[in-house]
Amino acid sequence: MLDRIVEKNELVELIDELSRERTIIGPVPREDRYFYEEVRSVRELDLDFDYCVYGPRAFLFPPTETLFQFQTQPGAFKTSAVLEDRPQAFIGVHPCDLNAIRLLDRVFSRDHRDEHYLTRRAATMIVGIDCPSECTEGVFCTDMKSNSAEEGFDVMCYPMSGDGNGQVTYGVMFGTKAGREWLLYNQVGRAPTVEDERAFKQYQQKKAAAFSPKIPYDVETLPELLDRSYDSLLWEATARRCYSCGSCNLSCPTCYCFNVFDELDLTLAAGERKREWDGCQLSTFALVAGEHNFRSKPASRLRHRIYRKGKWVREREGISGCVGCARCDRACTAKINSVEIYNQLAEEA
């Protein structure tokens, strides 16, 4: 059921007001591609975008960040945590990226809570925009059940109709109390009618018909398939093309591995502990003391990534480690394709 009906111009004005109290991050066109970027004006955003090269992960989990500062003193060692709580708002997040953020929320809040991620997340408001059809060629979000989002947003906008001149009517659902208050306090939009609900049902039916599966089996059975495919010759055959560049890890919206290191100042008495993104496809990812490397071959690293996305994360978190955005496939310089791997393993089995 819809909570509100909002016109695009009303939404843009409301986001403009929001920019006075939050940093706005959303899809910005750069030549023929889109990127999530921080903007000074809401007019820089294109809410009708199709596909962003990267997801908004870096604004919650930066590529490099300082965890804490430290200083040595005679008989003492002092530390001070560095937490970023700047209010920010993600605008126009598509369902695949909402599901990716949902996974990161789970990962960073269980066992040992990651206060750096969670502090940013608590300061982040998310306005999602649904995809009425596949945003670009090669995506397989419908297979991964991530072409729709039921949570992870404050407000979700469904583009139910447009006049061809850029004006869009959104059906809106509230995901949080903050999202509800944001629209209702500002008295934006109107209450949905029975006709609006009927139009929304038609929108959902058209959307379901616009997405086509790329994997000819239920991905819920993927962990079982991978269990039987550990010794497949496909890993070696495919990995012969792999450059171990890590482009797939860098472009993936759900990768969360990182490395930790210290940087000292010139006095050697103070410094910072930092973390930076790491990637399981890099040749040194599994390197440990004594120069032992538990995954020295590209084939074992490729298998590890596919198992992690298709099996281990699902078994641990209850949701898929892959959202089917195909960014890894697009970024791969060797043209290694996830769907092809999944389908070839199924043929073998």
Short description:
The protein has helices at residues 8-18, 95-109, 115-122, 177-185, 194-210, 222-227, 234-239, 247-251, 298-317, 327-331, 338-348, and strands spanning 4-7, 23-30, 33-39, 64-73, 76-81, 88-93, 124-129, 155-162, 168-174, 258-264, 270-277, 287-288, 292-293.
Could you explain the architecture of this structure?
The chain has eleven helices and 13 strands. It is α+β, with helices and mostly antiparallel strands. The strands form three sheets. The chain has a seven-stranded mixed beta sheet with strand order 1-9-8-7-6-2-3. β4 and β5 form a beta hairpin. The mean pLDDT is 94.
State the main characteristics:
about 350 residues; alpha+beta; 2 domains; seven-stranded mixed β-sheet; four-stranded antiparallel β-sheet
